[in-house]
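Lab notes, practical 5.
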Amino acid sequence: MKRSSRLLSIMFAAVALAGTVFSAVSARAQQVIKIDGSSTVYPITEAVAEEFQKARKARVKVTVGISGTGGGFKKFCRGETDISDASRPITSKEMADCKEAGVQYIELPVAFDALTVVIHPKNDWASALTIADLKKMWEPAAQGKITRWNQVRPSWPDAPLALFGPGADSGTFEYFTEAVVGKAKSSRGDFTASEDDNVLVQGVANNRNALGYFGFAYYAENQKRLKAAAIDGGKGRVMPSAKTVEDGTYQPLSRPIFIYVNKKATERPEVKEFVDFYLNNAAQLVKQVKYVPLPAVAYKTGLDHFKKGRAGSVFGGKPEVGLRIEELLKREARF
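Output from the prediction step:
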């Protein structure tokens, strides 16, 4: 009888130990890193997340949402996410919101993007556009008035102008309006808007009279369905490409893109490991998803800032247009 009792005690102890081990493993398996924000940065972060989860054998779950740069910062500054994808620097209003909520952030540039203006492949009249052309289409005064292609240029067809672009929470929308119209978020409102760039791709691909804009990766993935327009920023026509971004000739629609990391979240080992992994693998994965990787020194500087917990932004909360890679590197070096 005593022996049976001892055996039962040992069995219960073994079950309890197994339960404890299982719980610990489950807890590790349920570690979650929450990311949201820019649809432009999404392909990079999603690629990093997939590789990281494979490397960690699914012990860490990384969720990546797309609510636009502005929408992502709203969640980030409320402390709802660990990392925010951003296709433009944090604004002074967002900086104030984060400060009020006690959220400190580490700003990390991860790539350069060629914001790409796209048309239907059968559009044979607007293969090259000036900034003045784009302004005439997109400025607030165009609403309800500039509705046909020949109103932009008389030599263009008397055909309806169908416009597709990111929504108001998009950093791409803010950058484009700053670069083209001269003021962020200053735009006509009668266009088809979406935070999902795939919706914009579909819209332009299905309409010969359409024009839209989004990050280069979405154009690169859909080159058989779309045509990129050359942009004349004042020094001649230039096509978007890795080369023209690197040499600084694709202006003013070339821009850095970022991740912002909640400093407190880096106290969690899985977040720290993820950001280390991101910066160490960014160059390869950025190129894989058709963006322009930064020079190796930029990722090294970013890692150094991250390890030192260097919080804040080098942009002062103000929108900037036409920033080149070398200027970004100088700022990062001085930070």
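Observations recorded by the TA: The CA atoms of residues 96 and 298 lie 27 Å apart. The longest strand covers residues 105-114.
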